[in-house]
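User: tokens in, sequence out, please.
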């Protein structure tokens, strides 16, 4: 990572932690390579099937092997997308546990921060430099990863073996939420590093705190925007809609959930709901049009939490250190 455009404490931070920053860039390059490979592998499968003069619907014997190769290649490309999505999911935890947390805790533990403070660098400016360098790298790299992931997923094997926007690993892999999650991971790691002041402790606690925050956000995601309820018979989710609860409504408007009846009477769940007073079916969904509202609300929550965590880190630094 070039430090030519950085000055003062930011330059010192980039210089001091250049190995970790280079490793971060290298891992990002590997992630981009995996996603590009998924797209290219998927495209090569389509080209090979077309070159054989076959389609996925052909029943002719000569096309059997070509169709089998096509399915195998597209399935492999889908797995590459899934691996990349898992990487995007755990990225905030890695940033908190292996970048922000230990970056601060190591200096506080070893006492090297005192050298910077004796050179006309205030504690606040020192901490700002420690935060700004990985934050700038995050704001540069994560949007690129998000864009490349969306390109690889939406134009690759998603038609044959679909993965949907509302799945936990997919929702956090493209759009603006990945950036917000990454900044939250850095901010929580920063706060933990200042509080713990021990490198190994900071790494473990940061991983737990960031992981817990992401788990809570995932659990609350479907409630971040008003749910649309469909009623009638033979209900099914709209194209690319996120299906939530389903069941039947009683005459008084109470809900009889399908999952409750299925748990007790899996073979006669429909009859169970009717016996409990259900008169008309209902289905709760988030249509595809709710994607961006959900992204924006979750991003706002993450940025607010990140701001609070960063503010807490500055307050703790000022209160606990001479």
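Assistant: Sequence out:
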């Amino acid at each position: 990572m070039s430090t030519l455009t950085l000055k003062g404490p930011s330059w010192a931070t980039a210089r001091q932690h250049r190995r970790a920053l280079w490793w971060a860039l290298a891992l990002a390059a590997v992630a981009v390579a995996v996603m590009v490979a998924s797209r290219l592998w998927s495209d090569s499968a389509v080209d090979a099937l077309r070159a054989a003069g076959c389609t996925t619907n052909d029943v002719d014997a000569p096309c059997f092997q070509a169709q089998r190769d096509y399915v195998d290649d597209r399935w492999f490309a889908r797995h590459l997308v899934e691996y990349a999505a898992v990487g995007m999911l755990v990225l905030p935890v890695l940033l908190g546990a292996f970048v922000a947390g230990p970056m601060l805790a190591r200096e506080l533990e070893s006492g090297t921060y005192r050298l910077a403070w004796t050179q006309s660098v205030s504690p606040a400016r020192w901490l700002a430099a420690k935060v700004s360098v990985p934050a700038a790298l995050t704001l540069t790299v994560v949007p690129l990863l998000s864009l490349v992931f969306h390109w690889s997923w939406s134009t690759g094997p998603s038609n044959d073996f679909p993965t949907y926007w509302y799945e936990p690993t997919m929702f956090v892999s493209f759009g603006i939420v990945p950036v917000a999650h990454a900044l939250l991971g850095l901010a929580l790691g920063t706060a933990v590093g200042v509080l713990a002041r021990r490198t190994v402790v900071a790494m473990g606690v940061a991983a737990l705190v960031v992981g817990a925050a992401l788990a809570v956000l995932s659990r609350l995601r479907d409630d971040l925007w008003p749910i649309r309820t469909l009623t009638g018979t033979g209900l099914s989710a709209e194209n690319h809609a996120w299906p939530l609860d389903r069941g039947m409504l009683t005459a008084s408007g109470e809900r009889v959930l399908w999952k409750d009846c299925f748990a007790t009477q899996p073979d006669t769940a429909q009859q169970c709901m009717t016996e409990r007073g259900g008169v008309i079916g209902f289905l709760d969904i988030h249509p595809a049009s709710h994607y961006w509202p959900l992204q924006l609300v979750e991003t706002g929550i993450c940025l607010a939490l990140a701001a609070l965590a960063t503010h807490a880190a500055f307050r703790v630094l000022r209160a606990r250190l001479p």
